[in-house]
């Protein structure tokens, strides 16, 4: 809770994964991938409840072991084309049936295992301090849009008209992108939304690239494992 506002942490974790089978519970530095997100959420003082929404009994068992509450979701909310906003609506309605209401939802994807409880707290506190509708974590963009191209009929043109993509990096304006680690939004805004999970007046918390790894394939998993290993070995 923060400023008398209740905060729900929601971790969406469906069972199906094409790139890495059982991705949400694949081992990362000796523990299931999802456990890193659950532990970060539990260790965030502003968060009142941590729920994992899943269609997988196996994921549910792992999540329970690491201290999260479980809400099983119907199959239609666990398809490749399913939108996370629909899962958020479903979870909030199920909680409301039990007489539970929250002011903010903190969405935490299990594929961002390097985010910390401090990153989560920063987003929640920023939303409250600045009276925002949403906050999210960002990183410096992998590709500056000034260096992006579009190709039509084998003819390349700069993605931004008039851009000079061969400028030295030091002369380019800094660009950022969402890193998928933390999203915090007022419940009233989420209930109005059909697609977006951040909206209205949005605040940004910038995370370093080394903690912005998003697990999409096995190369990402190897990168995250390497960073984890270095992090914990440096502490010894």
Portion of residues in beta strands equals: 15-25%
Structural class by sheet pairing and helices: alpha/beta
Mean pLDDT: 96
Q: Please give the CATH class.
A: Alpha Beta
Q: Provide a count of the helices.
A: 6
Q: What sequence of helices (H) and strands (E) makes up the elements? A: EEEHEHEHEHEEEEHEH
Kindly, what is the distance between the CA atoms of the first and last residues, rounded to a whole number of angstroms?
A: 34 Å
Secondary structure tally: strands? 11
Strand order of the largest sheet: 5-4-1-6-10-7-11
Shape: globular
* Main sheet overview: 7 strands, mixed
Low-confidence stretches: none
What's the CATH topology name? Answer: Spore Coat Polysaccharide Biosynthesis Protein SpsA, Chain A
Per CATH, the superfamily is Spore Coat Polysaccharide Biosynthesis Protein SpsA, Chain A
Radius of gyration: 19 Å
């Amino acid at each position: 809770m923060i400023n008398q506002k209740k905060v729900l942490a929601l971790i969406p974790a469906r069972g199906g994964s094409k790139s890495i089978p059982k991705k949400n519970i694949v081992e990362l530095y000796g523990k299931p991938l999802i456990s890193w997100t659950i532990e970060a959420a539990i260790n965030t003082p502003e968060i009142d409840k941590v729920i994992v929404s899943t269609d997988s009994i196996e994921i549910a068992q792992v999540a329970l072991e690491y201290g999260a509450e479980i809400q099983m979701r119907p199959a239609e909310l666990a398809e490749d084309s399913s939108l996370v906003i629909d899962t958020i609506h479903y979870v909030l309605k199920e909680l409301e049936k039990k007489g539970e209401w929250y002011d903010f939802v903190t969405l935490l994807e299990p594929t961002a295992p390097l985010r910390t409880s401090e990153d989560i707290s920063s987003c929640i506190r920023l939303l409250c301090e600045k009276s925002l509708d949403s906050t999210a974590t960002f990183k410096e963009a992998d590709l500056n849009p000034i260096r992006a191209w579009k190709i039509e009929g084998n003819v390349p043109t700069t993605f931004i008209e008039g851009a000079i993509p061969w400028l030295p990096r030091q002369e380019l304006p800094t660009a950022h992108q969402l890193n998928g680690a933390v999203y915090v939004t007022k419940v009233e805004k989420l209930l109005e939304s059909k697609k977006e999970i951040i909206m209205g007046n949005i605040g940004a918390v910038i995370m370093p690239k080394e903690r912005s790894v998003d697990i999409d394939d096995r190369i990402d998993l190897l990168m995250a494992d390497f960073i984890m290993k270095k992090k914990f070995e440096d502490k010894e």
